[in-house]
Structures are given as C-alpha cells and as structure tokens.
Write a structure and sequence with these properties.
By secondary structure, the chain is α/β, with parallel strands linked by helices. It has two domains: 66 residues, no CATH class; 123 residues, Vaccinia Virus protein VP39 (Rossmann fold, 3-Layer(aba) Sandwich), CATH 3.40.50. The chain has seven helices and six strands, in the order H-E-E-H-H-H-E-H-E-E-H-E-H. The longest helix is centred in the last third of the chain and has 19 residues.
C-alpha cells in the first residue's frame, strides 16, 4: 500500500476540518497557508495551495498529483511530457533543449533526466518570466523569450554562431486565464505563434 506524503495528508485534514466545523460549502474558496513540499533530494520550494473545495478534492483524488509528490516532480504536467517523449522517441542523451514558459519546472526536470549524461553532455535551458527554485542540471533564465535581450542570453549559452543549435524547443506556457474563452484562446494561439517564431531565431 502506498503511503501519501505528509503534505497531502495535512491538506486533506485541513479541508475536512473546514467542511465539518466551519460549514464550508462547495464552491467557497479555501486558502491554505504556504508550506514546504519536497521536490527533490536537495531542493525545496514553498507552494501556496489555493482553490475551491472541488479543486482541492480533485487534486487529492488525482493519481498523477499523488505520483508527482511521491516522485518529486514540480507538477503533474511532467507525465504529459513523458507520454509525448515515449510516443515520439524524443529527448536523448547529449541533446540541447530550451524550455519556454518553464515555471515551475516539471518539463525541465524531465528533460534534464533524459539529456544530461554521465559526461555532463546535454543542456537544458529553462526560460520564464517568473523565477523559480533551481533544478539540478537546468540552466535558468528569467525573462521574456520574445525579447531580443533574452534571446541573446540563450544564444550565448548555446555557443558560437558557427556551432549554435537546439535539438528541441519545448513550450507548455499558458496565459493567465481571464474567464473569457475567446480571449483566452487567442492568448494561447499568440503564445504558440511566439514560440514557433522563437525556434527560427535560435
């Protein structure tokens, strides 16, 4: 039988107590104070857990959420990339990878596990507007990947112009949701277009 991490158990207990003793109704926002959750053997990060009762309940019952806690990934989207990698035979040792919109870093984690080999060949560059706790084997750049200064910083890490290349550009970025589907869809399309344009410049 698998034992869940203490962080999930505490979350479950808090939600249960609020439902039983404070008459919290479904749909009412529940905010739980920041706590440290282990994301690796050395790295820790504080994650604020906030949402409705439905959201918290869904998180508690989601097997991928439980698995990512047990295996030390930043978020459940790590398994989405693993599925893509296995299906299309991507991310091999020694590759150079750029991860756009990388925060909180789960895709960069998966990439580093697969491309960084014993000889320290391979490179993973994580780019995001938000700074997040460091990851083993990942070089982090805080900036807007559509801006020239950020692109120049990435190019400098990739080497001289004659030898510069990228094997794979990853992008799981998402805009802040506005609540308006058409507007949010347009924002997603714009990010895809920007990421595609980025691949032509590095």
């Amino acid at each position: 039988m698998t034992t869940l991490p203490k962080s999930i158990c505490r979350l479950y207990n808090v939600v249960t107590q609020r439902i039983q003793h404070r008459s919290v109704h479904l749909g009412q926002a529940v905010e739980i104070k920041k706590r440290k959750i282990r994301v690796g053997s050395k790295n820790f990060m504080e994650i604020p857990i906030k949402g409705t009762i439905e959201y918290v309940s869904r998180q508690l019952s989601d097997p991928f959420v439980k698995m990512r806690h047990l295996e030390g990934y930043r978020c459940r989207s790590a398994y989405k990339l693993m599925d893509i990698v296995e299906k299309h035979d991507l991310l091999k040792p020694g590759m150079k990878v750029v991860d756009l919109g990388a925060a909180p870093g789960s895709w960069s984690q998966v990439a580093a596990e697969r491309v960084i080999n014993k000889d320290d060949d391979g490179l993973v560059i994580a780019v995001d507007l938000l700074k997040f706790p460091p990851l083993d084997g990942v070089t982090q750049i805080t900036g807007d990947f559509t801006k020239k200064e950020t692109q120049d910083e990435i190019k400098a890490l990739l080497g001289t112009e004659e030898n510069r290349f990228v094997d794979i550009v990853l992008c799981d970025a998402a805009p802040s949701a506005s609540g308006f589907k058409n507007k949010d869809h347009l924002a997603i399309v714009q990010i895809i277009a920007a990421a595609t344009n980025f691949t032509l410049k590095v």
